[in-house]
């Protein structure tokens, strides 16, 4: 990407950009000065792209609420600010979002929320556009990367013109699609200066009531702005109303079905332009990704619709050309025969997501299993790579960011069962800190395990504050005893963790911090620095086929041969040596470079 | 109309890069392009799938089942998994390599025979072996790129470095 930055300083170029990169470049063209985010797929690359621009304030915040607050404050002070998150992150930031609509902003405030229909990497499906209706914040919805670029820029202009926050809603198939985008050079950042306005910026009841009235009035005028972003592609008597990524499937579907339809594409699906009522007669086919939000608003205008509400299009998952063509055909009562795919000659065995070879969490889960043997714990989990502890049966409850300690406390007080709460370092700062205070004040017996790999690893390795503000120091400040272990040192760690388990059994909470950086970051750095990474090998004559390495440690670089003996794929092994530590018959051997490599790795 | 490809492999093999190269070449050849990448939970070691569509006018970023002109597989087990995307007239281009899925040892010979005898037009290519001859498995995707570019009549992407160019040329020679 660095080459691109150089390039576009000279010219306007057309280049294959990821939707998220396009949003970032659109924001740069829109004079963004402050950009914040908490990483989350599919939104992460927006801030990753902006991070390269040192003339702006760009910050990975602890969580989405903090991120939105910083951007909101900047926009209140007249600057142009962007905050990016995934759909579930907007729940965390929902409180300041609602206030932002009441006070409005002086500069531009653009809240990018990336939805993930069919949950490629999320715990639920959610349609961000509901928040637009709920919080009285207009929503722009681009259909592809080129439009994402333009809308990001437009969003700043609109936000500043309306003095109101704007949501830019993306979905996986916009954020993670590459397409040609024409990129202009970035504009200089627009900073600001805070002007006091007591009755506007202090949402105490007396002032807030006045702001509420003003907000409802303003919402009426925003419908006119929405009309400006509506595009009508004239055609026959059939009218299809669409928005966002769904537009693309509509374009392909009308061609497949060979129908002449008038397509109305809404750039701002919340609020819909009331003027749309004058454009259509009879039934409208509505195609949108997510929930029937445009359709619900059209029905409120007393228009007849065929969309998701009556099941013409599926109410869950992503759309595609086939689903859209089928739905339109059904709505118009015309035939459509989709292609029949060929069947695979044999069924491919599943390849579920697994922890990376050498992942420190693999060691931590093994240590925890042995240290809690016989206790039959309830494993209270959280969102992150360590969710994959589900593969060894060590996750029973994973619901949202911060669920580990909060729900774990609930289970522990309700059932008196032994509960292990596992949380990553980034999630620890994101959502667990306040819960830790509750844990400390109430002294609920809970084994909290912070899997501290120093990065927000699942989203590609954004920095976490763990080295500056170590979890064990926080716990000790709160009066919770803390132990630090190294998951690569399995034998010692089991002994230390057993001591922690005894404290929990005596009725008190305890923290175990398992410290070793993300193996992906470490191997990347080692390769650059030319540090040798050892390879481990199985000596087949010694291996007894017990399966501890591939079934219990569950290293994904190790497979069971047909005779049950272990095989280490040399292309996958990253030399952590955990397999050699757990092997009961000493059948796994490294090449001696481990000690040096583990030291380098710990510094990664 | 657009040409639709589904590119599959195992996390870490470079399927995303392969897709980007093909997209870059298609853009240079004057086509409109859409590449839909899947980033998700711990894709390293898991199945990876990327959809590429190019043509005069492209809208939909994803390919539906039965809609792919080509399935390009960097790994043979994943080729079987992606069969459902092929049009009945579609072409499968698969690397000979088998990366063992967790917990179940599959016989590579069995997988490759299933592909060649399936009745679909298939190229089964030694991309991994050639990459190893060139010094590293990281050239696997560039060898595949060479073969696919030949089939699609696309140019070599400009961004390839010299080693990858050599891999590309070796790959192009695999298909006639």
UniProtKB/TrEMBL annotation, chain A:
<dbReference type="InterPro" id="IPR009014">
    <property type="entry name" value="Transketo_C/PFOR_II"/>
</dbReference>
<feature type="binding site">
    <location>
        <position position="576"/>
    </location>
    <ligand>
        <name>[4Fe-4S] cluster 2</name>
    </ligand>
</feature>
<feature type="domain" description="4Fe-4S ferredoxin-type">
    <location>
        <begin position="534"/>
        <end position="563"/>
    </location>
</feature>
<dbReference type="GO" id="GO:0019164">
    <property type="term" value="F:pyruvate synthase activity"/>
</dbReference>
<dbReference type="GO" id="GO:0046872">
    <property type="term" value="F:metal ion binding"/>
</dbReference>
<comment type="function">
    <text>Catalyzes the ferredoxin-dependent oxidative decarboxylation of arylpyruvates.</text>
</comment>
<dbReference type="GO" id="GO:0043805">
    <property type="term" value="F:indolepyruvate ferredoxin oxidoreductase activity"/>
</dbReference>
<feature type="binding site">
    <location>
        <position position="549"/>
    </location>
    <ligand>
        <name>[4Fe-4S] cluster 1</name>
    </ligand>
</feature>
<dbReference type="Pfam" id="PF02775">
    <property type="entry name" value="TPP_enzyme_C"/>
</dbReference>
<dbReference type="InterPro" id="IPR017900">
    <property type="entry name" value="4Fe4S_Fe_S_CS"/>
</dbReference>
<dbReference type="InterPro" id="IPR011766">
    <property type="entry name" value="TPP_enzyme_TPP-bd"/>
</dbReference>
<comment type="subunit">
    <text>Heterodimer of the IorA and IorB subunits.</text>
</comment>
<feature type="domain" description="4Fe-4S ferredoxin-type">
    <location>
        <begin position="564"/>
        <end position="593"/>
    </location>
</feature>
<dbReference type="InterPro" id="IPR029061">
    <property type="entry name" value="THDP-binding"/>
</dbReference>
<dbReference type="InterPro" id="IPR045025">
    <property type="entry name" value="HACL1-like"/>
</dbReference>
<feature type="binding site">
    <location>
        <position position="573"/>
    </location>
    <ligand>
        <name>[4Fe-4S] cluster 2</name>
    </ligand>
</feature>
<dbReference type="GO" id="GO:0030976">
    <property type="term" value="F:thiamine pyrophosphate binding"/>
</dbReference>
<dbReference type="GO" id="GO:0018491">
    <property type="term" value="F:2-oxobutyrate synthase activity"/>
</dbReference>
<keyword id="KW-0411">Iron-sulfur</keyword>
<keyword id="KW-0004">4Fe-4S</keyword>
<dbReference type="GO" id="GO:0051539">
    <property type="term" value="F:4 iron, 4 sulfur cluster binding"/>
</dbReference>
<dbReference type="InterPro" id="IPR002880">
    <property type="entry name" value="Pyrv_Fd/Flavodoxin_OxRdtase_N"/>
</dbReference>
<keyword id="KW-0479">Metal-binding</keyword>
<comment type="subunit">
    <text>Heterodimer composed of an alpha and a beta subunit.</text>
</comment>
<dbReference type="Pfam" id="PF14697">
    <property type="entry name" value="Fer4_21"/>
</dbReference>
<keyword id="KW-0813">Transport</keyword>
<protein>
    <recommendedName>
        <fullName>Indolepyruvate oxidoreductase subunit IorA</fullName>
        <ecNumber>1.2.7.8</ecNumber>
    </recommendedName>
</protein>
<keyword id="KW-0249">Electron transport</keyword>
<feature type="binding site">
    <location>
        <position position="579"/>
    </location>
    <ligand>
        <name>[4Fe-4S] cluster 2</name>
    </ligand>
</feature>
<keyword id="KW-0560">Oxidoreductase</keyword>
<dbReference type="Pfam" id="PF01855">
    <property type="entry name" value="POR_N"/>
</dbReference>
<feature type="binding site">
    <location>
        <position position="583"/>
    </location>
    <ligand>
        <name>[4Fe-4S] cluster 1</name>
    </ligand>
</feature>
<feature type="binding site">
    <location>
        <position position="543"/>
    </location>
    <ligand>
        <name>[4Fe-4S] cluster 1</name>
    </ligand>
</feature>
<keyword id="KW-0408">Iron</keyword>
<dbReference type="InterPro" id="IPR017896">
    <property type="entry name" value="4Fe4S_Fe-S-bd"/>
</dbReference>
<feature type="binding site">
    <location>
        <position position="555"/>
    </location>
    <ligand>
        <name>[4Fe-4S] cluster 2</name>
    </ligand>
</feature>
<dbReference type="InterPro" id="IPR017721">
    <property type="entry name" value="IorA"/>
</dbReference>
<keyword id="KW-0670">Pyruvate</keyword>
<feature type="binding site">
    <location>
        <position position="546"/>
    </location>
    <ligand>
        <name>[4Fe-4S] cluster 1</name>
    </ligand>
</feature>
